[in-house]
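2024-03-11 09:14:02 DEBUG pipeline.ingest accepted 1 chain
2024-03-11 09:14:02 DEBUG pipeline.ingest length=334
2024-03-11 09:14:03 DEBUG pipeline.predict start
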Amino acid sequence: MIDKARKQLVLLTDHRPLAEFPASFGIDPDSDKYKAFDSATPEGLYVVTQKKFNSRFHRLLAISYPNLANAEKGLAGGVISPSEFQRIRSAAKNGTATVSDTGLGGGIAIHGGGVFRNFAKTRERDWTRGCIALNDADVEKVFDFCRSGDPVIIFNSRRSLYGIIRPFARATDLDEAGRPRCLDGVCTYQVEVPTSLGRMNLVIKEGKAYGKSIKVVVDDDEARKEPLLVIVDHNADGILSPLDEIGGPADSRADPDAAYKRARDAVIDALSRGAMVEGKRWPMAAIRGAARLPDAAKRKEDGRGPAGIAGKARPVIQPAEVMVSPRSTGRRPL
């Protein structure tokens, strides 16, 4: 799990933090990656696709950017062509190498090289072209612990609920070729998250003329007819105005901003514990399960030594190795 706001990479096991390491991001450390050469670090749900023992920046773990969520929004926004979308979709569907030569860019990885790096007379943080950089000693631990196929969650807890969840949401209406259909120029994306409040269904809509909106519906189980909480933020600004909507218990209606904050905090907590599967519904019990993909240990890895051999046990990381991220230098994007 990687929270860009905290500038931190956390290793999780059974949805519990095992170790955490300071991290650096792209030259634009705050934005979600939108296109090639924007020097932003992508947000969303990815997997480790390849491990390289030796790279330009020490150990390297490639991740599956761009994924289908990126491709759907990239096509709707005119960043990629229909043919580029189909290439990304085919690669994701067939489990082949991630496509990295479209308008969305690619080649994103977790690697070493240092949280801080010297450039001429300056020492900079957030120095990559979009990758996640760790100190060399830390990336060795991450490299040894992770396997190809392991999920990687990247988000920015500083954003509004719309901004946090948008990278994870998938298009709800697809044509025969699997491309998103945006009726009247409005695209609809959806994702479900198992949270401490209940199962949270989030639907976002966006379009050039429409603007953007988010609807949040929280249920406790399938049998309940009425949801626990319903919030509609018509301009997705994270603030409920008289034009927005809220439904549910009386205390939520009495203090709608507090209810909205509870929903946002519950999503951040779920993401921080790895409770997320892109575009799929998880039972509530899954919040206590392991965030592992099936048969990940059987997949071929490009590593050396015991930790780089598929099927070997993960190394033990002692609690003493847990580290706290240093504060950001406050450097603004170039």
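2024-03-11 09:14:41 DEBUG pipeline.report The CA atoms of residues 194 and 283 lie 7 Å apart.
2024-03-11 09:14:41 DEBUG pipeline.predict end
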